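Researcher: Quick one. two chains, 920 residues in total.
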Amino acid sequence: MAADPLRTETFDLVIIGAGSAGLAAAGAAAEAGVGRILVLEKEDFPGGILLQCVHNGFGLHRYKEELTGPEYAERALIESRKTGIDLRCGAMVLKITPEKEIYYSGEKYGCRRARAKAVICATGADERTRGAIRIPGDRPAGVMTAGLAQHYMNLDGYMVGRRVFILGSGDIGLIMARRVTLEGGKVLGVAELMPYSNGLARNIAQCLNDFDIPLYLSHTVREIRGKKRLEQIVLSQVDGNFAFVPGTEKTFDVDTLLLSVGLIPSNRLLTDLGVRLHPKTGGPIVDETLQTSIPGIFSCGNSLHVHDLADFVSSEGENAGRSAAKYILGEPGTPPGDSPVIRTEPGEGIGYLLPSVLHADRAAEFLLKFRVRKPYRGVVLLLKQNGGLIKKVKKPYLLPAEMENLRLKRDELPEPSGTLTLEVTDE
Amino acid sequence: MGSEKQKYSDVYDCVIIGAGVIGAAAARTLSRYRLRLLLLERENDVGLITSAANSAIVHSGYDPTPGSLKAKMNVAGNRLFPEFCRQLDVDLKMIGSLTLATDDDQIPVIEELAVRAAQNGVPVEILSRDAVLRREPNLTPEVRCALFAPTAGIVNPFELTAALAENAVQNGVALRLNEEVTRIAPHPDGGYAVTTDRGVYRTLAVINAAGLHADTLANNALAELGKPADYEIRPRKGEYFVLDHFDPEFLHHTIFTVPTEKGKGILVSPTTHGNYLVGPSAEFTDRKDDFATTDETLAQVLASAQKLVPSIPTRQIIRQFAGLRAVEKRGEFVIDRPAPGLVNLLGIQSPGLTACFAIAEKAAALLREDLPLEENPDFNPVCPPRVRLHRMAPDERAKFVAEHPSYGRIVCRCEDVSEGEIVDAIRRPSGATTVDGVKKRTRPGFGKCQGGFCQPQVVKILARELGRKPEEIPLKSPGTEILLEKIGGADGG
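Model:
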């Protein structure tokens, strides 16, 4: 009989993705006593998207100093070098089965199967593409996502355009506006569909204002022109319903259009497995332990919901790592729905609210994460359970670009079940 | 220069102009005979224009007017598909089609189509509302009845054209890309002189399969022969949406609206890779290079498709594209031999893809008097099998990868494509030389991220395999290179 070509190994925990979320999860799980941890990374190096983020601004919360993406990744990697962690790069996960068998493939490893007691998915996010936002017109070269341009410039070392326009004021787009300018390219403008920016305020200041790059709010690209390389884009203002305002068209002669129009959590492995996704975030539905609808499968980082700061990704990763450790070491979580649960719902002004499910009897404190739908100034957040007010937080400002955290103690919850809603109100 | 050109680059029995699916099929069919064959293509890859942007359907043939060339070629072509796709190792699924009546007025149309199908020799069945909804629960509850055509299928059109060209080259056909025919003239000693932007070829026969430009070539060639002609291709644009492969159970058949005077109407169909295709529109355009999509047209396409399948998940839309159908003004296929040794295959609009094998056979038959059609004993109709890792069982895959490690390295996460498969797509005869060529042959870039993750890898592999610099690798045609110079002017890398 021939040997089984599909080598199978057994671990306590398999973590998919060695970016900021996955590395932090590995470190925290090892710290909590998990013995055999396998981290699988599709790229040849750990660090994830941080590696192409050569700009600074990372680590202010976590390390109280300002680091570049690669520096932050290095810290995260060093922190994750703990006994029991086996990091394998160049290993793409193909499939997770309900029995928690992970099939992966790599040039070095061949095709292998890992059996695990728990799995953490930290698979990051995909950029929304031209096709997803359906920009009409020709299909020339020179139209690409901002993150792809960042890869080409910062990892491969190539210029991608000389006269550049950027659609979307997400942080990657803003960062790339500065990057292209610093390398001698001309950025003619950044357009944002919404009447406010979708990037961090510091990036608007440091990446656009400092370089006199105009920001066109309530504008979008309505046509792409060019037979081979991009030749021209047509920009148009949009009204409150995102309809083009006639007569506001402007054309720009550019050879490159970068798209920074949002990230979508990357969860094919989980959807193939039948894990339920959150309709707003695109990540899985999770409880306070970041466990998905399948027991023992956890999610964190940008594959759970899109973050704006790597620091928060790391702490979410640690949370997932600790939860997985509890699950593995004998405090098995229960799938949502099996015991009294509190469901969370975004109320007025809230875009999404995580986690979707809380178990009041299983934690002393809960960390709620949310984003608002539009910018607010001088408002109050109202947290209500089953209609009754349980917490009131004043906020000088709230921005859709910034993910907010809200801590909630178990004692603040009058009941172990029902619905928890968060809403924004003027006051 | 002129005298140098007259040296004749080479002498052939037949020059086939255009390496779309029709030209490639003709070349492959003729390679069964002991002939010196040249396949000329002005683009930098085969199957790049109409063959790359269509509905990817193997039509059953219930729709074309009985007795028309379209009907004959469609039905004959359809029957050849399973065997030919097996030989070429091309993805084909005979999933059947459902043409829906969604209001009472359309019921008689379905009945009429059933009659037409019978005349064309196409097996069909009219299904009741309940029977249709049992087969396809996601169809509109408004459906009254449907025409079920079990012999309809879906094919991978990129793979088909690439495989036809590959097999033709394997069997001795010379393929020249990036070479545009500028003139076809009678040669004083018989046969033709085919002039391109790179040379002149002498040949006994010419097959004009130049797609959107076949009219001009044919008219000019016939003018040289003193036989004025008035072929006219009017491009009719079709715009489409592509959806991600979000659910293999969403639809199981190709779903059509009832045909209109403009064409077969809108369809919603699975593709061979589990994506879903929605389209096409059908509007005449006066430009043969107009592949732009528009908001207005695509909104209409979506609205029409939603009348068939109301729950089309628009969040799953990953791409839009437009193709041009080469419609001859008479609305019929033109497969003729207006002069000895000159065969036109023009106006091959839908169902041209389905008809390709039958048209190729017909072209060979038309040249029977012009060429010595002596069987080539070395003809091998079979393409070496394509490795499709994502369809292998885990054990089988592990075994294969253990023997071929580069198939272990996954380049495209969305579509599960390995470096080994990409290298194979580049190294095969008539292989990929562009990012788009790799994508069409083996799918990296077809998925949800549209190349966002895999494109840098594909560029590097192409550069390595072709011995070029990454900045010389085009997305598609020359002039579409993705990268500019190295940052800092250094080539350190």
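Chain A touches chain B through 55 residues (CB under 8 Å).
Researcher: Thanks, that's what I needed.
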